[in-house]
Amino acid sequence: MIKSQTIEEIKSRMDIYEVVSDFVALKKSGSSYKALSPFTNEKTPSFMVSPAKGIFKCFSTGKGGDAITFLMEVDGLSYLEALKYLAQKYAIAIEEDEADPNYLAEQSIRESLFITLNFAKDHFVKNLWETNEGKSIGLSYYKERGFSEETIRRFDLGYSLDQWQGLMDAAKSAGYKDEFLEQTGLKIVKEDKAYDRFRGRVVFPIHNITGKVIAFGARTLKSNEKGPKYINSPETELYTKSKILYGIFQAKNEIRNQENCYLVEGYTDVVSLSQAGITNVVASSGTSLTEEQIKLIQRYTKNVTVLFDGDKAGIKASMRGIDMMLTGGLNVKAVPFPEGEDPDSYSKKLGGMAFKEYLDDNAQDFIAFKTGVFLKDGGDDPIKKAESIREIVHSISLIPDPIKRTVYIQECSRLLHVDEGTLISETNKLLLKSSKEKWEAPMPELPPEAYEPQQNETNVSRDEIIQVQERESIRMLLNYGAELIDGLEGDQMHLADYFMSESEDITFETPIYSQILEIFKTNLANGEVTSIKDFLDHNDPEIKRAAVDLSTDRYEISANWSEKFQINVAHESQTLKNSTYTNILRLKFRIIQKMIAENMENLKSASEEEQINKFLSIQGDLKSMEMTIAKILGNVTVK
């Protein structure tokens, strides 16, 4: 296990902005940063990062925490993996306590799978550079493709020996378990036989966003090989093909820096283009583009340039991917290649500089590209031309931004020599149809009781209101408890002390808020005031999660806005005592309202005169208290 001192050093060095920026394009928003959520496919930014507090908060999913939590959520890392990632990022040497003899066996399954895959990657790389078969077959193939040794090592390219159990035997000798070889797809078991999946093939490791190997692609070099030329790892706990892009780990920083992502089809396309100087390139690995892959690109840029192979069938098949990217709000360009050429072959034919120039000179907006493809295919046939126009208008209708749609309609009208009003009319028809389909989707059938009023509906709503007010009260305590305010006699006191004196007759019903309150009470009794950082670093994940939630504001008043309109809006931090008092008073008001409702129910069910008089007396006292608090709140009177 990593030593506690090392963990503390990692936590002290990690910067939430720097870590999140590796995965998400952040924009300044007041004292914080905002972005589109990396966890959902949203159109309006709801993801916030607060460098001052060292936390992130995703309002669309409710996820939040520090840099470690972010890595665990965004890339599915374990706590230990996240720490190791940060240690590597900040060049911190990892010191570990002496491992228990059973430590490796007790590691999580997930971590064991990562370790096994990394061993396999190292094994394939070693085969390539250190065995006669690897050098004569695998290395020769890569060099024939024009890959330099630097490029081969950058992508961890390797070779699997043409042996039935070469990897299995090596893994067994190194102490790796058969079950993990099978779970990662490295080993195939059929009936009573077991053998290596990738034997006799060159191997392309597939990395996740943080650089961990999660799967492999492999190509046979035998002309008489039965079966597919390329094979991939099966989907596992770590690898879902539709959620990963080949080369994303190597390309992510350049995609952000160049504000563009080149999208190709295969592994060799990525490797060749990277060597030619096009380092912001990824591949969909031969699959149709998916929403998850589009969302992965959106973390780094909104601009995509699709590099198509020269054959018509491939271009037509890729049109669906363009439509999906348009729906996702991406700006799409395309570069066609001459018949029979692909990005790999053409980059080698032209050379690095000339190929870059070709991409710059031939990148077309998707409208111009799609228009050229469909009109060329349709020729002078008016029916086919009309179908082509409908196809293009359909793509335009998918663009969520109305201004962009208008610009593309104008461009389409110019290219196709079709009246702009006609195109607008057709686009509006498609938008209306899409809207109707969305709103007229069949509702799920509900059980009869769902349509009947629930007896406890009023009580539930009161409880929820109380919970909201408890949240607001604890939020003030959590964020400002350590702040100093003026006491009754002009002396200064911590807000936490003032909070306790005003809320001593309240029992908080929400368990997590009650826990936070008790931590404050315990520490105050020991002469300590708990800070927000103590909760953000708390060992209890529930308390830590609540602290992130309570310390993050989704909206912040713009300083420019206030200055422009000469409006000064006081923040709660400027009126701590008043804001705290008001929140506690509102909570008391809601609690009294609930007590009034419960007492009224008791009064209704009372049958004896003594009971009736008792409940009437209680009701009078409660109503008097309710009116007093309402008057104070109404007059905005504060202590």
TrEMBL record:
EC number: 2.7.7.101
Keywords: DNA replication, DNA-binding, DNA-directed RNA polymerase, Magnesium, Metal-binding, Nucleotidyltransferase, Primosome, Transcription, Transferase, Zinc, Zinc-finger
Swiss-Prot/TrEMBL catalytic activity: ssDNA + n NTP = ssDNA/pppN(pN)n-1 hybrid + (n-1) diphosphate
Ranges where the Toprim domain occurs: 259-340
Cofactors required: Zn(2+)
Cofactor note: Binds 1 zinc ion per monomer.
Classification via InterPro entries: DNA_primase_core_N_sf (IPR037068), DNA_primase_DnaB-bd (IPR019475), DNA_primase_DnaG (IPR006295), DNA_primase_Znf_CHC2 (IPR036977), DnaG_bac (IPR030846), DNAG_N (IPR013264), DnaG_primase (IPR050219), TOPRIM_DnaG_bac (IPR034151)
Annotated function: RNA polymerase that catalyzes the synthesis of short RNA molecules used as primers for DNA polymerase during DNA replication.
Family: Belongs to the DnaG primase family.
Oligomer status and interactors: Monomer. Interacts with DnaB.
Protein name, UniProt field: DNA primase
